[in-house]
Each structure stands twice: as structure tokens, then as C-alpha cells.
């Protein structure tokens, strides 16, 4: 069994020696990079050589802080957009607190749709997961828990489009920024 697991990790399946899972092509490498610097770490893919491990350590040492800066900037831009919309509504309709509450609610609903409610439909189509499994994957990924029980693009029986992992990588970055804002609002509310 250990031999089969090791062979699978190396890209060998029962159907033959294949790299069709896209583990180390550009999109697979990009996805690995995103999962490393976001600290998701699904556990299904890792460097197997000493040089690869050393590179991964150095990459993470610089990549994680840079990613945190990037996520903070994306989150600030999202927040700025929400604040500008609220300000325009206040000016147009002379609403005070109502505009802010309305825009924050719209931003929350839009984020819920883009990052948690609609992606499971894509995962159902591309991965064959149920909607609940896709929703679970969405939250576990964006919250950086990353158990590794569900990982996109790993089913050897499915054909994945070239854009799939790249789009999911961008979804992870923007979704993490959005979820960080939601968590920040929850913290402020609880405090």
C-alpha cells in the first residue's frame, strides 16, 4: 500500500504513468505556489528533493509576508470601494447610516455569491462534487484550513480545462481578502 501511495504522489496511476493531473505544469505549479504562500497547504503535493524543499522554504519566507501585504491591499481596495459607494448614496439620497448599512449588506451578499455560493456550482461541474462538498471546499480553502480531503484538479478520470487552476488560484486570493474583511467586521462587532 505504501508503494501505491508513493507512486500516486509521483504521478503514476493505476491507468499508467501519467502527469495528466497537471501537478508540475505551469497551472499546477502556480496553484502549488498559491497554496504555499496562502498557507493553505492541502498536503497532496510537496517537493520531494532536498533542493526543492530548500527552495520551498525560501519561497515561503518571502512569499508569505508578500502575500499578506497583497491580501491587505486587496482588502483595503474592496473596503474603499464599499465606502465610496456608501458616500455616494449618502450624498444622492441624503441617507446617513442607512447608506452605509445598505452598501455593507450588498458587499456581503456579493462576496457570499462570488466566493462561497457560486463556486460550488463550478466545483460540482468540474469535480463531480455535490454542492455541499463544493461549499465545504470553498470555506475550508478560503479560511486557510486546507485539510486536503478535497483538492481541485486531482481526479485522473476527469479532464480539466487549462484555465481552471489559474482561475481558482485568483479566486483564492480575492476570496481570502474578502473573508478577512468579513472576519475583521465580526471581530469588531464582537469587541
Short descriptors:
191 residues; two-stranded antiparallel sheet; 2% strand; KCNKH protein; transport; ion transport; mainly alpha; Helix Hairpins; 2pore_dom_K_chnl
Tell me briefly what this model is.
The chain is mostly helical. It has helices at residues 2-9, 26-37, 50-93, 97-117, 119-127, 131-142, 164-190, and strands at residues 12-13, 16-17. It has a single domain (1-190), classed as Helix Hairpins, CATH 1.10.287.
What does this structure look like?
- The protein has a two-stranded antiparallel ribbon with strand order 1-2.
- The protein is mainly alpha-helical.
- It has one domain (1-190): Helix Hairpins, CATH 1.10.287.
- The protein has seven helices and two strands, in the order H-E-E-H-H-H-H-H-H.
- Helix 2 runs parallel beside helix 7.
- A hairpin with a 2-residue loop joins strand 1 and strand 2 (16-17).
- The mean pLDDT is 87.
Amino acid at each position: 500500500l505504501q508503494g501505491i501511495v508513493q507512486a500516486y504522489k509521483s504521478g503514476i496511476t493505476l491507468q499508467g504513468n501519467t502527469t495528466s493531473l497537471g501537478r508540475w505544469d505551469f497551472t499546477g505549479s502556480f496553484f502549488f505556489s498559491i497554496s504555499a504562500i496562502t498557507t493553505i497547504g492541502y498536503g497532496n503535493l510537496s517537493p520531494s528533493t532536498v533542493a526543492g524543499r530548500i527552495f520551498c522554504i525560501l519561497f515561503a519566507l518571502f512569499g508569505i509576508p508578500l502575500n499578506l501585504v497583497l491580501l491587505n491591499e486587496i482588502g483595503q481596495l474592496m473596503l474603499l470601494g464599499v465606502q465610496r459607494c456608501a458616500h455616494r448614496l449618502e450624498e444622492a439620497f441624503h441617507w446617513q447610516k442607512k447608506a452605509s448599512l445598505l452598501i455593507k449588506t450588498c458587499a456581503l451578499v456579493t462576496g457570499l455569491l462570488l466566493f462561497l455560493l457560486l463556486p460550488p456550482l463550478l466545483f460540482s461541474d468540474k469535480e463531480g462534487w455535490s454542492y455541499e462538498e463544493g461549499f465545504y471546499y470553498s470555506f475550508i480553502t478560503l479560511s486557510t484550513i486546507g485539510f486536503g480531503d478535497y483538492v481541485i484538479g486531482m481526479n485522473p478520470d476527469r479532464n480539466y480545462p487549462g484555465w481552471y487552476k489559474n482561475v481558482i488560484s485568483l479566486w483564492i486570493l480575492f476570496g481570502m481578502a474578502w473573508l478577512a474583511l468579513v472576519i475583521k467586521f465580526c471581530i469588531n462587532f464582537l469587541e
